[in-house]
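The protein record minuted underneath.
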Amino acid sequence: MKELIIPSSSDSISLSTIVTEPSSEPKAVLQIVHGMAEHKERYIPLMNYLSDRGYVCVINDLRGHGKSVSTPDDLGYMGKVGWKGLVHDEHDVTEWIQKEYKDFPLFLFGHSMGSLIVRSYCKTFDNDIRGLIVCGSPSANPLVGTGKFIASCIKLFKGNRFRSPLLTKLTTGAYGKKFRKEAPNAWICSDPAVVDAYNRDPLCGFPFTVNGYTALFNLLEDVYSNKGWLVRNHSLPVLFIAGSEDPCIDGINNFSKAVSFFRSVGYSSVTSKVYPKMRHEIHNEIGKETVWEDIADTLDRWVG
């Protein structure tokens, strides 16, 4: 494993990045985009497994996360470029990969908020990848416009860097209701050890700033908007995966609608799989080995 910095072309943010490589000739490269209020190191076990299966894996801390911040106060703050910066940062990472591993096909994997970023990425950059895995995807929310309005009002009085308990309650606050008899944030995973490590980690679970929530709302709006889809790569293979107990997908019916929407904008090869009894982080769940194997097998099929 190696660690490096990839400069963002959007502003002065330095994207902290790690790479794992197989011990022999790679089959392909997988670019991973992590979720909200976490960091890249949480994906190292998955990356090591996939590298053992022959894949170079590349992941960066999103702006406002992990080490991709100027100061700890920037956790949950996306800068003036906001949601568009999050998307273009990932294309900056893609361009680095294309230079370093130009002879190998590139696949993209996004989890949770990362699943929003990779789908927004596809609106413009789908020709740069050979396949897409969408994991733990937030479903369309009819109240996203209301959320943006509330955030704009709070910004007016409190500023962009204010951390609003109301915005937290309106977004991830409801996810834990079903699991309230368990530890805080038990909605992410049924494995108590994973939840405990998450709760103890200062780089996980931090509240977003008003700026961060505005970026999240804009991503949600962009991903489920019919506008702006260039769809240059109609036959791009796309796989949606999620846990049946994931509150983020808002039920199997809404998950299916998210899959159908991606087909409706012009992608002809979209499939999905739901894992019974698993929660939000299926790649960290009890039984995660099945998920890891399915991801690797899917990539193998796509490589051909």
Remarks:
- The CA atoms of residues 79 and 219 lie 15 Å apart.
- The chain has a mean pLDDT of 97.
- The longest helix spans residues 82-100.
- The radius of gyration is 18 Å.
